[in-house]
Amino acid sequence: MPRIVVLTGAGLSAESGLGTFRDVGGLWSQYDLNEVATPEGFARDPVRVHEFYNMRRANCRAAAPNAAHIALAKATEQLGDALMLVTQNVDDLHERAGAQNVIHMHGRLDGALCHHCDHRWPAPLVMQADDPCPACQVAATRPDVVWFGEMPHEMETITSAIAGADMFVAIGTSGTVYPAAGFVDIAQDHGVESVEINLDPTSGRFDRILQGKATETVPAFVRTLLNS
Ligand code: BV8
User: Fold this and answer.
1) Do 112 and 47 fall within a single domain?
2) pTM for the model
3) 210 and 160 share a domain?
């Protein structure tokens, strides 16, 4: 059972140049999430949705992990099973920094899914709506990400780990999107210490707040963690 559960959000990748969702100029101010991040939007216009994710996949490919990703990767390496790293992010910057066993609760940009036969395979950089599934050959391919209205992955694993942990840490997330936004309440309900690491505090629901840019606050936090 992990002693520490860390949840990361778009703020962790902000200093790698990947846009967040709800900051000024964020993705959801440029795109209507109902059009590009829901099953209904995909059914209406799969070409537009693939274009949205092809753009994000190219941005992700051009980005590099930052000091916060690198610090968290070192923590997963040194703490092993004592640390569970969960991300809402669909980029692969945690993995490219060397993190092990990252739980992508909202899926991954570098994954492809067939909505006809549920086959999964590594996504090409550019996906097209009429790409045939490698398994069933039906043109039913989509990005392997969790859209609004879809169930995030490994919820039972994550929520039971938080309930039994010593500490829950939320890094670079606005706490807007459920069920991830409710993880801090699970920590509070089970007497688990909750820490928020963010540029700006989001809510008064955390026991402790470490305010600042992730590339500064996260390495400092990990040093403290590994020295304790
Ligand atoms: C579901 C993948 C039901 C795609 C995403 C109550 C309970 C359950 C559901 C709901 C509920 N109320 C409403 C809902 C519905 C909905 C929801 O929460 N809506 C919101 C808008 C109100 N939730 C869902 O639909 C979820 N599914 O409930 O299914 C169900 C039940 C049974 C059976 C089947 C289904 C699914 C949610 C997942 C949606 N997919 N992403 C993609 O990425 O394209 S969510 C999307 O928001 C992103 O992926 C992102 O991960 C997520 C959260 O955003 P953040 O990461 O927090 O980013 P944000 O920009 O908001 O904030 C950035 C933060 O960083 C800020 O705080 C900022 O201050 C900070 N920051 C910025 N720079 C820095 C920094 N911090 C440090 N350093 C910096 N440099």
Assistant:
1) yes
2) 0.96
3) yes
